[in-house]
Each structure stands twice: as C-alpha cells, then as structure tokens.
Amino acid sequence: MHTEATPAQADVSEADLIKQCQAGDTAAFDQLVTRYRTRIFGMIYNMVHSEQDAWDLAQDSFVKAWKSIGRFRGQSSFYTWIYRIVTNVTIDWLRKKQVKGSGTEFDDAVQLKEIDPASRTVPKADALPHERMQRKEIRARIDAAIQQLSPEHRAVILMKETEDMQYHEIAEALGCSIGTVMSRLFYARKKLQNLLRDLYENV
Amino acid sequence: MKTFEEKWTAWIDGKLSGAELAEFEASLPDKAAAEAEKRDAQKLGTFLKEHLPCAAMGNEDFFNHQLRERIAGDEPAIRDRETTGTGRAWWPIGRLVWVGSTALAIFSVCTFFVMREKAPTDQSQYLTQILNARVDPAVSPNATISMFETQEDKVTVLWVEGLQSLPSEYAHK
Fold first, then answer.
1. Is the Cβ of B16 closer than 8 Å to some Cβ of chain A?
2. Which residues of A touch B70 (CB under 8 A)?
3. What is the ipTM of this complex?
4. How many CB atoms lie within 10 A of CB A148?
5. How far apart are CA A141 and CA A164, in angstroms?
6. Chain A residues near residue B64 by CB distance under 8 angstroms
7. Taking a C-beta distance cutoff of 8 angstroms, is the pair B67, A62 a contact?
8. Cα first-last separation, chain A
9. Does B67 touch chain A (CB under 8 A)?
10. Crossing angle, helix B31-51 and helix A178-202, to 10 degrees?
11. Phi-psi category of A103—alpha, beta or left, where left has phi over 0 and alpha has psi -120 to 50?
12. pTM, 2 dp
C-alpha cells in the first residue's frame, strides 16, 4: 500500500495514530491525512474527473472520517474504512449530480498534473509534445468511457485495476458482498472492453 | 453457488484453482474464444494501470490546513453534543419515546371528540318502544297489538292487526 508517510511519521504506527485521533488529537489526524490524501484524491479524481470537485469531496470525506473515527473499531484496516467513507461520499455526489456518462462532465479546463505511472514517486523527464498530446487524448477517451459506467461500477473497476485492491477489500470499502464486487467487475470490464478495445489494441 | 459472472471474473483474475478451475473451463462452450477474451480483459487492466496515473494533488499543505480549519470550526458543536449527552444517544431513545407518547395522546383526544359527537344520532327519533301483545286468544286467535311511542312529541300509536271483529265496547266509542 503506497502512502505518503515520511520515515519519521512511519515510526508512529497507524494504530497509535488512530488511538490518538480517538482521544481528540487533531495533529495525529493530520498525519493520517498526509498519509492518504494523494491516493484518496486520485481515486476521487478518477471517478469525478474534476480537480476542484475531487478536492472538495476529499475534504468532505476526511471531515466525515474525523467525526466518526470514534466508532472505528479496527475490524477492517483503516485504509478500507476510509475508502468506504470516500466511496459513499463520492457515489452520493455523483448520484445527486445525476451523471449519466454524457461525456460533458470532464473538466478539461483543468490541467491535471500527472505523475508517470511507471514511477509512482519520481516523474521522468518531460515527454515529447506529441507524446503528451497522445497521452491526453487517450486519457480523455478513458475518462469518457468511465463516465458511461454507474458510480458503483466505476468504484469497483478503479479500485481493482488502479488501486490493486483485493475483492474482499473492495467489498469492505463498498459495503457489499464479494460476489457483488465480482459481478460488478464483470459488467464494468465488458463495457470498457467494448468502448476502449480499439485503443488498447493499437496503442 | 457462484454465478457465471463471478466465476468468469475469478477466472480472468486467476483466482480459480483446482476442481473449480477444471469445472469452469470444461463448462466453456468455446475455450479458445474464452481465452482470447481473457487476454483482452487483462490487456484492458494493464492499459488502465498505464494510463490512469496517480493524480498529483497540488497544494497538499493547503489541503491539510483547510481541513484543520474545517475540523476546528466543527469542533465546538461536536464537543457540545458529546458533553451534554444530547448527541446520538438521545435521539433513538428519548426523542422516540417522547414523540411516540405525544402522538398517542393527540390520537386519543381526537378519537374521543369524534366518537362523542357521533353517539347521539344513532337511534331513531320516532320509535322508542314497540310492544307486541296478543288480544284475547279466544275471540281473535291471530290478532296482535303493537304500540309505537315517540318520546319527544308524547304521541302513542296503537296498531292492531288480525282482529276478526271489533269488540262492541270499542265500536260504541
């Protein structure tokens, strides 16, 4: 699991931080936020395709997490617990916005700063202009395809394919059964295969 | 019992093994096509990993700062709820009991008034008493006499039926 913890922060175990948070220590919560903010933001961004909305939803998710951390009993990992909050907040937001994959949602006015996926932490040298253009076009196609999925299907495919989460972790994060996760993955994959086949066959 | 979709997904992700794997692969009508589909799905996964990058969040420190501000703003309200005990625990028990008993009381009062207004109109205002009696069986064996009385007008009607002859003392009057 990739987090942003610095070596000093890593010395403090997650369980200790959670206990401190439960005792009302906001500084401890700040450390937890620092550990997870980028992944949470990235996950939300891939679902809503707007940097500003992703920021706001990540804020809302962390505020909710702070308010309910007293009820966290450690039966699941903190990561899946907070992902549950994040997916609930994001799916509710998407449902309210009634996004139906029209392709108009993508916020292309905002230039997303991308880190090369092959290197999670250190970006490589700048890509050539035509490569950047090609990447941008591919990204727009993927975003448009993902927008055609229901919020639940989006969450499942992103958790599986980009977060490398296991079925049971996704099930915990979404509050559904493993069978439901597998079934949603089946339909999400089929749809994306139909929409993106020409792209991944040729790139 | 897993559905086909669940088994297919597990097969794509390499999560089937042993007898379950053999059984599933034997159930596929066209294994070559299924294998091609599997490779296709795996390509999709690789493609998504490559092209959905880890989005870099700008202004991370400001994110934390903004969050601290929001939490600090919410803190008094949260603390108040916790210290006064009027938070989550009060709602389900105290308020539900209060709302329930109030609703029951209002319902009882309304029912009382509605029932009270309807009660006097049920009975006919004319007929208060019917008295059936037989006239002398020796003279008129099938004769009956009925008496109707209205309470408000103080009127009594005597209804005689089946008399074979009118008694002489009535005829004189």
1. no
2. 59, 63
3. 0.74
4. 17
5. 22
6. 30, 33-34, 37
7. yes
8. 29
9. yes
10. 80
11. left
12. 0.63
CB-CB contact of B53 with A116 (8 Å): yes
CA-based nearest residue to A86, from A186, A163, A179, A190: A163
Residue from the list A54, A115, A162 with its beta carbon closest to the beta carbon of B48: A162
Predicted confidence at residue A11, as pLDDT, reads 58
What dihedral angle (degrees, nearest 10) is formed by the CA atoms of B94, B100, B106, B110?
A: -170
For B66, the token pair is 């903004």
How many Cβ atoms sit within 10 Å of the Cβ of residue A174?
21
Q: Name which of B46, B50, B52 to mutate to probe chain A: the one with the most chain A Cβ atoms within 10 A of its Cβ.
A: B52
B28 SS3 class:
coil
Label residue A10 exposed, middle or buried (CB < 10 Å: 0-12, 13-18, 19+).
exposed
pLDDT more than 70, % of chain A: 80
Nearest to A2 by CA among B54, B139, B43: B54
Residues of chain B positioned with their CB less than 8 A from the CB of A138: 51
- The answer to whether B69 faces chain A, any CB pair under 8 Å, is no
pLDDT tens figures, A179-201: 999 999 999 999 999 999 998 88
CB contact under 8 Å between A182 and B10, yes or no, is: yes
- Segment B75-114, tens digit of pLDDT: 665 555 554 544 455 567 778 888 999 999 999 999 998 8
Residues in chain B: 173
For residue A111 the two structure tokens come to 């230039």
Each residue's pLDDT tens digit, B55-76: 778 888 899 999 999 998 876 6
The answer to whether the CB atoms of A37 and B78 lie below 8 A apart is no
Contacts of residue B58 in chain A, CB cutoff 8 Å? 51, 113
User: Is A161 within 8 Å of B52 when comparing Cβ atoms?
Assistant: yes
pLDDT the model gives residue A4? 55
Q: CB A59: neighbour CB atoms within 10 A? A: 18
| Residue tagged 């394919």 (tokens) | A161
